Amino acid sequence: MQQDLQQVKKIIIRNKLWQAIFAVVGLLSVLVGIITLITLVLDLFIDGLPRLSWQFLTSFPSRKPEEAGILAAWVGTVLVMIVTAIAAIPVGIASGIYLEEYAGKNWLTGLIEINVTNLAGVPSIIYGLLALGLFVYQLNLGESVLTAGLTLALLVLPIVIVTTREALRAVPNSIREAAYAMGASKWQAIWDHVLPYSIGSILTGVIIGLSRAVGETAPLITIGALTFIAFLPDPPIKAEFPYISFSWLQAPFTVMPIQMFNWVSRPEPDFQFNAAAAGVVLICMTLGMNALAIYLRYRIRKQIKW
């Protein structure tokens, strides 16, 4: 009996030792990643902040680094992300709701689930080749803002679908059953009860997908994004009737990552500082998107009555 107790104590001590070792290794791994990220971001800000100015934000690209700006790039990025959000978010959330709440458990649903999950890990250049064949050549949309937005929407769509399904799955079945007990239909239970409780997690997945899309370069270069552009698309709102214009959807475009790639590839050191400044702006845009999503999630959760 005494020997058994001694053996159990040794096993417990050994397990605690391995647990402590794993905790230390995990902490060191996290610190290495965080310190590396902070170092890179600080280096980017140190190089880019002196170049940031109103002239830099409101000027077109130029062969002279001191006159070059990112006006066309950040406007193109905003327009492309608007199209991406409009195309990906409703379709992705609706697909997630259907797969989780309505689709039967059969081989077809299983096949769709496997493909959606796998598509979330497909390299972005594959989406660019798909968009080149489908949107540019088959649908004749050209190298336009619309094509770019739809391309990035394809990239984001699997992430939104998977996140929506996980968020809906996390809602307790008791909420659905309570809604059914009060006479609600399936759609009423989903719209009035399940979605409000899961919208915070869905928004998190949406913003992760959009944050990935805003930094993509390969698929946009594949479909013909310009590396140098010195004009802006037509504004979506005009002074004359019908006041709303969709011609900007067919306009050529460039985006922030492509502008940064163009400057980094040049040998002049001043262009490297321009690229760093553009990187600072891109990080601020991404953080702004995240802040908006966090605010919306907070407001929505605050309105939910438990």
From TrEMBL:
Q: What is its main location?
A: membrane
Instruction: Name its cellular compartments.
Output: Cell membrane
Write down the Gene3D superfamilies for this protein, in alphabetical order: MetI-like
Domain (ABC transmembrane type-1): residue spans on this chain = 74-293
Read off the InterPro entries from this record.
MetI-like (IPR000515), MetI-like_sf (IPR035906), Phosphate_PstA (IPR005672)
What CDD domains does this protein map onto? TM_PBP2 (cd06261)
Residues that span the membrane, as ranges:
21-46, 71-99, 119-139, 145-168, 189-211, 217-234, 241-261, 273-296
Coiled coil, from the record: none
Q: How does it sit in the membrane?
A: Multi-pass membrane protein
Q: Keywords in UniProt for this one?
A: Cell membrane, Membrane, Transmembrane, Transmembrane helix, Transport
What is stated as this protein's family in its record? Answer: Belongs to the binding-protein-dependent transport system permease family. CysTW subfamily.
Q: Which PANTHER family match?
A: PHOSPHATE TRANSPORT SYSTEM PERMEASE PROTEIN PSTA, PHOSPHATE TRANSPORT SYSTEM PERMEASE PROTEIN PSTA-RELATED
- For this entry, the protein name equals Phosphate transport system permease protein PstA
Output the lineage of the source organism.
Bacteria, Bacillati, Cyanobacteriota, Cyanophyceae, Oscillatoriophycideae
